[in-house]
Amino acid sequence: MTYKMWHRCCFLLGVTTEHHYKIKHNIKVMLVDENQERTVPLTQVLSEAGYQVIAYISDMADLNKEVARLNPDVIIIDIDSPSRDTLEHIAVASRDDPRAIVMFTHDGDTEKIRSATRAGVSAYVVGGISNERLKPIMDAALARFDEYRGLRLQLDVANNKLAERKVIEKAKGILMQRRSVTEDEAYQALRKMAMDRNERLGEVARQVVEAAQLLG
Fold first, then answer.
1. CATH topology of domain 3-155
2. What is the spatial distance between Cα 168 and Cα 87, in angstroms, rounded to a whole number?
3. Pfam family of this protein, just one (predicted)?
């Protein structure tokens, strides 16, 4: 998906583009680590790489609240082994407004990796944080999430178009029955209503269907 296509999808869906990472400027990072001392050198490395560390939390139970309050672009989690509770917190934080999540851990269990990915983790890195590897890992995680977000938008656009076509077909059927007109005449009537009201064809079709349901 090209940059232009991505923004077109966002426009059609009314989705904000604030999490698009093609241009890395002032990307806000939240750090999650039980050991606060480990975040000091990490914060420095991130700052030197152009990232803005906006928060540090030590308790995963605070993740959802702090994400909602601060709206970070990226979450970095440093943990020995992700527990089920940890993954549940991540899933909740990612459900409504997904963002790039990088997890550094010492647990290379295959099932843990799969569970973390399903929960919303963009990059699962075994072996802990290495300052030398941090920037390429972050860049890769952001690129992967950007691609995921673009594919998700494409899918949403396709689903919306399919749903709209179904509503239009239903509205045409209603007009054909109520006005005793042909399918083409019903479609042209819907188009005229849409033009007269300066509304989308799908929205006018939805109104026709709702009106028919109310009138019985």
1. Rossmann fold (3.40.50)
2. 41
3. ANTAR
Starting at the earlier edge strand, list the strands of the sheet with 100-105. 51-57, 27-33, 74-78, 100-105, 123-126
Provide the residue-wise pLDDT of the chain in tens; the chain has 216 residues: 444 444 444 444 444 444 444 445 589 999 999 888 888 888 888 888 889 999 999 999 999 999 999 999 999 999 888 999 999 999 998 887 889 999 999 999 999 999 999 999 989 999 877 777 888 888 888 888 888 778 878 888 888 999 999 999 999 999 999 999 999 999 999 999 999 999 999 999 999 999 998 886
* Residue carrying the six token digits 């604030």: 18
Give the domain ranges of the chain.
Answer: 3-155, 161-215
Single pTM value for the model: 0.63
